[in-house]
Amino acid sequence: MPFKVTARTILQLGGELISSDGIAFYELIKNAFDAGSKRVLVDVVSRLPVETVESILDQISNVGETDSPDVQRRDKGRDVAAETLTRTKNLIRENAEPTAKGIVEWLGDVEATCDLDELASLLLDANSISFTDFGHGMSLEDLDTNYLTVGTPHRKLERLNSNKTILGEKGIGRLSTMRLGKHLWVRTASEADQYWNVLEINWDDFGDELGQLIEDVDVEPKKGEKIGAGEKRGTMIWISRLHENWSYSKLAEIANDDIARLLDPFISSRRISVTLKFNGQRVPVPRMNEILTERSHGILETQFELVERKNGTKDVRFSGHIDYLVSSATGEKLRDRRATFDYCYDDLCGLFSDLQALCEVTDEQELTDLLLTTTGIVTQDPNSISDEQVAALFDSQDQFKAISQEISNVFADFNRRRSDLNAIIEGIKLFPRVKVETFASKEALEGVDGLSVVFLDYDLKRGKKESQEVARDIYKSHRAFIVLMSDKPDVEQDEENFRRETKLLRGFFRYLPKHRLIDAETVYRTLLFVPDNSDVCHTIHELVDALETTLGGNIKELELSEIKEELVQGQAVRRFMNVLRTLPLQDYAILCELTLVDEGHPLGDYIRRLFGAYLVDQVFTTVAVAGSLKRLDQLRFTEFLPVASNPSDSLRELYAASLVEPITNAWGSHPWEKESAPGDVDE
């Protein structure tokens, strides 16, 4: 005798397997990807609090009969219905979200209705979540045999019979919809279909009667409207009568914690593009490779070579791989993981200009001659460069070293593997020209002098009022720049009110979430907002002066004076990076050698540096600059390059080593990934 399964079992199964809204989103988006869609649109609409919706639906259900044969009972029922209609409309107007998607049209429909059943229907659709994909869709037979069959091995069989990346295999993804809401409406079509296939499910039907068997619940796919000309096939899943209230922050949390993990960033297949919206406002989806590599540590090996294509033409190739190491941040997650990259000429043109002629060279000497001109070290005569010119670039080395070391101390202590707040604060204090303190009370301020920057911990056991008093006293007594640290969402949302109520000038105040304190670059950029009369800005000015002196007249296009002026506006970092991209490669490489390569630097930037260094190295191997190498070999750069394996390594030796030896201490995003639009996971 076979087992009998009650209808309630489907609800219990969904509740056990889909334990959170994030998992539900993950499963539904994963299904879209498995259906062959390269893009999925998720739209969350929240017009009315769930509590208000359920309360009004309860009131409507309690209204008496309005069509009873008994005149007295019918009239009484109609009076109650009219009163309920007026009351509930007022309740809807009071609680409706004015910025919700389609709120004006929806409220217009509410006002226009004179029927409680119609109002109930509008309430059921007040809040919804839709998932739209453009995959291969489902036929009526697919809906019946696959979608309505829980635990089908359809995806597992597809995984075995194709080379595609199939994420699902258990056949329980459709149960995710019941986690999100009580009503489900599916519209789908395959390429062969001329009409949409429609499926509607009310999950309450599965729990209405105790002991009801699952086969007794009538769920049947139906043929829908004809597909319009130009309409794309695919699947739309629309969930209404939601169980919980939704907000922008809740959807953003799911984007960070669940959707970003949709695909392994180490696989080479194309990824799905996910667009999230809450009430029409786009919610960005972070790229998983950025999240992962921010906390990873790896070894990079690269190779640059001149190659011949199959058709006989020449091309350049810049390739390599990254081996990710186990660190305190990643644990065992990255063990034995490798990612590769391979740039051809077209790819490299996006990184460096003036390389077109590289495709046309026929021998090594021609390549060397071309590199001489391309890098900008000489313009006409390769013999025009002199020992004196090279020496002039390094006359101010000691001055630059002192300033650069000061900056590097901050980066070295602020690597992304440190998450302890106290350790981070101690790291900030290493910056010799900035006095930084954290204060738990007003009394802690007594006897403290000479403050320049104060990191104020908002989350200590005190109220908002006391925190404002502490901040106000710091500002009045020291005119110090205040960085308010907190991980409370309401603090970030109320940042401007906090500043205004504390009577702080906007230029002397910044908010910084604690979880971002582990990012050296974030902290450093925050310090760049410090006003012009502070010690921090003086230090940056000295660094700029040292750069100007070190590189002399060769880089007048840097317009360093403008950088100084823009420091106060917080534009220095962006401006400086843009300027570096315009440098001749030999100056750029020299700058790179004078920069600490550690966890604070993006991996993509380091690959660009390495490529620039390689081109310069090619130039240095020519007879034209042989005399200059004697000067370069006398310089020691180990303080600036932790990758040096020997304290006696010279610049020349480091160049050579960087081309063949593993490079450690490089962090950041994958250089071979193209930038995607904000809010998208790469296709």
The share of residues in helices is 40-55%
Which word captures the global form? flat
Gap from first CA to last CA: 50 Å
Mean pLDDT metric? 62
Largest sheet: 8 strands, mixed
CATH topology of the domain at 8-45 and 128-286: Heat Shock Protein 90
Please characterize this protein's 3D structure.
The protein is of the alpha+beta class and 683 residues long. Among the domains are: 8-45 and 128-286, Heat Shock Protein 90, CATH 3.30.565; 48-125, no CATH class; 434-512, no CATH class. The chain is built from 27 helices and 16 strands. The strands form 3 sheets. It has an 8-stranded mixed beta sheet with strand order 5-4-3-6-2-1-7-8. A 4-stranded antiparallel beta sheet has the order 11-10-9-16. Strand 7 (273-278) and strand 8 form a beta hairpin. The longest helix has 25 residues, at 71-95. It is flat.
Give a nutshell description of this structure.
The chain has 27 helices and 16 strands. The chain is an alpha+beta fold.
List keywords for this structure.
single chain, alpha+beta, Heat Shock Protein 90, 8-stranded mixed beta sheet, 4-stranded antiparallel beta sheet, 27 helices, 16 strands, 16% strand, flat, disordered C terminus, HATPase_C_sf
